[in-house]
Write a structure and sequence with these properties.
This protein is mainly alpha-helical. It is 77% helix and 0% strand. Helix 4 (58-71) packs antiparallel against helix 14 (261-294) and helix 8 (133-144) crosses helix 19. It is globular, with a radius of gyration of 22 Å. InterPro entries: DctM (IPR010656), TRAP_DctM (IPR004681).
Length: 425
Amino acid sequence: MTIAIFVFSLLGAMAIGIPIAFSLLICGVALMWHMDMFDAQILAQNLLEGSNSFPLLAVPFFMLAGEIMNAGGLSRRIVNFAMACVGHIKGGLGYVTIMAAVIMAALSGSAVADAAALASLLLPMMVAAGHDKARSAGLIASAGIIAPVIPPSIGFVIFGVAGNVSISKLFMAGIAPGIMLGASLWVTWWWLARREVVQVPPRKSMGEIMVAMREATWALVLPLIVVFGLKFGVFTPTEAAVVAAVYALLISTFIYRELSLKDLYPLFVNSAKTSAIVMFLVAAAMVSAWLITVANLPAELIALLQPLLDSPRLLMLTIMVITMVVGTALDMTPTILLLTPVLMPVVKAAGIDPVYFGVLFIINNAIGLITPPVGTVLNAVAGVGKVSMDEVTRGVMPFMIAQFTIMFAMVAFPALVMVPARWFY
């Protein structure tokens, strides 16, 4: 009965158009009413405590870093470097997109920001070269969702806080799977683009490649600073976010000199607005998470899934399918906040490594950003690239299938995630 009230109060509120954050609060009120423990003070206290978390400070700083990188020329120089390296190959602009997406993923951690930047920089070039517009937009959207998997990742920060899992370990464990997602796009693009007749830019000379690399060096150094800083305990993930934002600000203003003081105000405002939305979602979800614990919903779910606890792979497969379905209707952040407190006790009861579960859970949620009808990244690419949603949805399908294939391969073979992860721990 408690599970039914939780599900139907949440879905009912969303169905009548109430924003997700307020739907979560309504769900919490419904649970409190059902348990005969409604108290507005408890509701307010949990709402405030939900966002009162030091690790969550990483979210606004990573968002600020992404805004600065796109406006300050770091993203453009990464694209130019990738163009110099692989732009001359047949279908080279697609490989440039994938290569740039993987590098930019290690800078911002925001799928929407990366996809929007790639769409504005590369989509016109791909269309002008003769590539199919829908397919090109689909590639850019699917490449953008690598950002929540490769560290630094906002998704890992939120999952780590909600599930009480080491964010540093999640960051390190996400490196290899993120590269695998990029490799799946590389192979899929090669298969799709091999018969296209397109204009191929001339091969760059070694001197031009070195110039492009020198101009992008300051941007390329940031991922190394973050990874090595976390690996050797120089700073925490939250401090890494501050380092990334300050580093991007210094490089953009004093070295590349593409940002002035008057340019900073709108960047700070945009990142503050986005951060406020995320933090309110987190606060509202923490109210529901507390009530989920009080109502003993995890124990009820464990009882329902009892037959699967002895088969971790089958349980993971079931969880991934459930997450896929939820991801078609909800954005990444509310999905993480809703499902993590419910699923984590089940995962632990089955003896599944929480870090391994977290990586696959975030990959699934990241792919959910390009699954219609919600598909936040699809909407961003369609808006920036002036492409219809139908075209982007059609173009993204083969790449989405490739990424889901990689995810389910990781379900079948956990070593694909955990063996490389232990190299970085």
